[in-house]
Amino acid sequence: MRDEAVHEWAAVAAALMVDDGWSPAQAVRRARTQLGLPARATPPDAAALEAAVRTHLALFHAATQPAELRALRQTALQWMQRLVAFAPLLGGAVWHGTATRHNDIHLQLFSDDPKAVEVALLDAGVPYEAQQASGALGREVPVLSLAVRCADWNEPVGLHLWINDTRAQRGARLPDALGRVPRGTVAEVRALLAAETAPAPMEEP
Fold first, then answer.
1. SS3 letters across 37-55
2. Domain residue extents for the chain
3. CA angle in degrees (0–180, nearest 5) for 118-119-120
4. How far, in Å, CA of 17 to CA of 167, rounded?
5. Which of 25, 41, 70, 147 lies 20 to 30 angstroms, CA to CA, from 123?
6. 127 CB contacts (<8 Å, ≥6 apart)?
7. Angle, CA 17 vertex, CA 8 and CA 175 arms, to 5°
8. CA distances in angstroms from 140 to 63, 123, 182, listed in the order given
9. 65-197 CATH pick, 2.60.40.420, 3.30.70.260, 3.90.79.10, 3.30.460.10
């Protein structure tokens, strides 16, 4: 497939990811359909998608995205602190810095008792919906989906808790296809937020 077609495919998928909060896999499939591409066509790789997302953000969301990202990271940190007993890791667009208010928050949790997280939520009176999905290492795991309050917007955002057994912790921080750490700890998310508010260093006169 020509480079121009792959570039267009990545651009359409990036718009779906940024503007509608679609996952990369969903966005790539939908973009293929929108563009009428054949099923055998090779999709854009992770690097092309990432570049397209960054370009879309710079062109259409430069004025609003940084504040929206910060609000989502603050909300994520609050829940990571509430669920610290389960060694939470923040992943997805909120961790990688490409999230807008259309994105949900995804936390990977680790426990040898898959019901322990549900018990903690029930004890706190927090409603959730349960389903199964492919977790941090590709295994089917429980996923608990919540609607939680984002203080900056005074409206709910989606929070998804992926419950892995503790053995999955070993591989959960291995570099992704772009060589990045795919998920961040409580301390790392806190450091990101602190860096965003730190004053710029003064220049010498």
1. CCCCCCCCCHHHHHHHHHH
2. 3-60, 65-197
3. 90
4. 31
5. 70
6. 121, 146
7. 95
8. 39, 25, 19
9. 3.30.460.10
Q: Could you tell me the pTM of the whole model?
A: 0.91
Q: What are phi and psi of 177, to 5 degrees?
A: -65, -20
Alpha helices in the chain (DSSP H): 3-20, 24-35, 46-60, 65-82, 92-96, 116-123, 186-197
Let me know: does 104 contact 157? Beta carbons within 8 Å.
yes
Summarised one tens digit per residue, pLDDT across range 15-48 is: 999 999 999 999 999 999 999 999 899 999 999 9
Instruction: List strands edge to edge, sheet with 155-164.
Output: 89-91, 105-110, 155-164, 140-150, 129-134
Bridge partners, residue 1, by sequence? none
What is the distance between the alpha carbons of residues 151 and 170, in angstroms, rounded to a whole number?
33
**What would the pLDDT profile of 68-93 be if each residue is shown by its tens digit?**
999 999 999 999 999 999 999 999 99
- Which amino acid does the sequence have at 156? P
Q: Which two tokens stand for residue 135?
A: 């977790």
Question: What is the rounded CA–CA span in Å between residue 119 and residue 109?
Answer: 14
